[in-house]
Amino acid sequence: AGQGDILFITQRRKTYYGLAAFLALLVLAAVVISLCTGTSSTTVLQTLLTASSTTSEIRGVPPPQTTIAPAAPKMCMFWGDPHLVTFDGARPSFYGDGEFWIVKSPQVSIQGRYKGTKYTYGLAATKKVAIGGAFIGQHIIQVDPMDDNGKITVDGKDVCKNLGTSYENVNPNFPFSIVHNDVGVLPDKAASQFDRHIVHISLPLGIKMTVFRWTN
Questions:
Q1: Is the pTM of this model over 0.70?
Q2: CA–CA distances in Å: residue 99 to residues 74, 102, 139, 147, 149
Q3: What's the rounded Cα separation, in Å, for the pair 102 and 201?
Q4: Which of helix, strand or coil describes residue 2?
Q5: Pairing mode, if any, of strands 124-132 and 98-104?
Q6: Which tops the pLDDT comparison, 69 or 141?
Q7: Are 34 and 43 contacting, i.e. CB atoms less than 8 angstroms apart?
Q8: Cα 97 vs. chain centroid, distance in angstroms?
Q9: Contacts with 10 (C-beta within 8 Å, 6 or more apart), sequence order
C-alpha cells in the first residue's frame, strides 16, 4: 500500500603464588602513591578495591572516544519526460506511465505518479507526488500539477492555494512545513517561459523536497 490515493507500499590444580605476588606489588604501588601524594589510608583501600577496573580507569585516563562524521547529504532529481538523477548519481532511463516509489524505507515513503503529456509527446511526466510514513506521523502530503484543478493537500485538506502562502504542522514530534512561492533554480531552462509555482517542503530527518508545478 502507498500514500494517499496513489497505490504505492580435566581441571588443573590452582596455585595462588602468582596472585599473592601480584597483590604484594599492588599494595606496594598503592603505598608509594600514598606517600608521594599525601593520600590517606582510606584512599589506598579504595585504590585496592578498584584494582579490578580497567587500566585506563586506574590511571585516571578517560577511555577513547569514537567520533563518527555525519553523512554527506545526497540529492535525487527528476524532471521532464522524465530525466532522472538518483541519490548515487546514476541516470536511468524511464518513460512509462504508472505509480512508482521515489523513496521507500521503514520511516520514509515518497511516491510519484507518471503519465504522458502532449508537451512530452506522450512520454511520462510527473503528475503527482505523495509523501507519508512514520517520520511525519503518518500524515499525507500531496502535490499536484497546476492543471486539472491541481492542489497541494495535507491529509486531504487544501493548503497553500496561492503564491506567497505557507503551512506548518505544529506537532513538535513531527514538524514539517510547506512554502508555495516562485523562488527557486529551475532544473531545466526550457521551463523558464512558464510562470513559476514552486513548492518547498521541509521535513524531519533533514529531508527537503522542492516540487515545480507546471501545467501539463
A1: no
A2: 23, 10, 19, 19, 20
A3: 15
A4: coil
A5: unpaired
A6: 141
A7: yes
A8: 29
A9: none
